[in-house]
Specification:
single chain; mainly alpha
Length: about 150
Amino acid sequence: MVKMKKWLVFLFTLLIFNLSLVFSQSADRIDVLFNTPELSYEQAAAFVLEASDIAMSNQAEAFRYASEKGWLPKNAGARDTARLDGVSLLVMKAFEIKGGAFFSVFQNAHYAYRELEYRNVIDGKTVPAMAVSGEMMLFIVGRVVNER
């Protein structure tokens, strides 16, 4: 009986230790993202896919997946600075947000940006070609998740 209790205490301690590592790694990734002045499309894809519960093992795989699905602008490179209109398209597609008439017809980054601006997900003091910072990405995804 004593041996069983020691074993259970050991397993419980191991579980708590592993959970603390998982949560600290998530917090570290959020801190890094928050302090990134300009995201790449690869970083943006990894974060948005993870937030929308699409599991990917790394950033390169997330970028490849989003690119193959047509969720990124056609000319977007993995290391290119993520533009707000391109990120808008990624967010609309990853979170399966139905857009207005023009987005439904054209399914492009410009109308994705316009749709998120209309829904007040994106602040009106922006332009489609602006670079997306980690802080802005957290704000946008937070608003989308909150809207659901």
